[in-house]
Write a structure and sequence with these properties.
Elements: H1 3-32, H2 36-40, H3 54-59, H4 66-97, H5 103-112, H6 118-131, H7 138-163, H8 166-174, H9 179-187, H10 192-208, H11 211-216, H12 224-229, H13 239-259, H14 261-274
Helix pairs in contact: 1-13, 4-7, 4-10, 7-10, 8-9, 10-14
């Protein structure tokens, strides 16, 4: 195939992928700026003169619970990502370097936990959380989120730690460093990009989670995703307010990706190259 045709198809594919990715986002922003009457008319009235910020002012009303939902989501996602990174990095390093007996079986067991759909464990999990009085608590939701985010963190970081040159760790051992000191002073400083990338991934997973949040929360720990879903009622769905809430809930994740984009890109590139 001629080179210019190859470049044409590559560019066409990239443009198509970009449009497909951005299309729902653009439509969400447009919908959030239109009144309900314009959205429910057939066809939808997209006249720019109908643009209003009324949906945003309504969803920011404290009685709708979005603001408290954003705070709860931030607390839960932050602690889930932080605890997941601390425990996951140590577990991943141990499985990658310390020649633990049965490490392969442990890895397969960790992987097997990801094979079960959430609905399978929903009822037993709710009973356990209810009897331990962890329903509708930040701690309870963090523990549940760690149960499915931690295995992913371990698998991602284990692959990176295995790619760290053994010569660095042997040199540290010659200088008298034990495995913990080697991990803390040698491996962690050169692993910041993958750690940031994995941490952002864990934060986004916890921030967007909906299934367990709707089962294990009531009033006190209602997350942003639950607050957004409540704009859909039995008799009416407030599309504009729902999409305005979704746009506001997306801002922290987008800001996080922009602030740490250098570390995220570097982490994924290093992982791709070293894998």
């Amino acid at each position: 195939m001629p080179r210019y045709l190859t470049q044409f198809f590559i560019r066409f594919g990239l443009i198509a992928f970009t449009l497909l990715s951005l299309g729902p986002v653009v439509w969400s922003v447009v919908t959030s700026l239109l009144p309900l009457s314009a959205l429910t008319s057939k066809p939808p009235d997209l006249n720019p003169l109908n643009i209003t910020l009324e949906n945003y002012s309504l969803v920011l009303d404290s009685s709708r619970g979005l603001f408290s939902g954003l705070i709860n989501s931030f607390i839960i996602a932050t602690f889930t990502a932080a605890v997941g990174l601390v425990i996951g990095s140590m577990a991943a390093y141990a499985l990658a370097r310390l020649n633990l007996p049965g490490s392969n079986k442990i890895l397969m067991m960790i992987l097997a936990t990801q094979m079960f759909p959430g609905i399978v464990i929903a009822i037993p999990l709710f009973l356990v959380m209810s009897r331990t009085r962890l329903v509708d608590t930040h701690f309870g939701l963090i523990v549940v989120y760690l149960s499915f985010i931690l295995p992913i963190v371990i698998w991602i970081l284990k692959g990176f730690f295995e790619s760290v040159p053994m010569e660095l760790e042997r040199a540290a051992a010659v200088d008298g460093a034990n495995p913990i000191q080697t991990f803390r002073y040698i491996v962690l400083p050169i692993s910041l990009p993958p750690l940031f990338a994995t941490g952002v991934f864990a934060f986004i997973e916890a921030w967007n989670e909906f299934f367990f949040a709707i089962i294990l929360t009531r009033i006190n720990v209602k997350t942003a995703s639950i607050a957004i879903a409540e704009f859909s009622g039995q008799y009416q769905t407030l599309y504009g307010q729902m999409l305005a809430s979704a746009v506001l809930a997306s801002i922290p994740v987008v800001a996080l990706a922009i602030i740490f984009r250098h570390f995220i890109l570097e982490g994924f590139v290093e992982g791709a190259i070293k894998a």
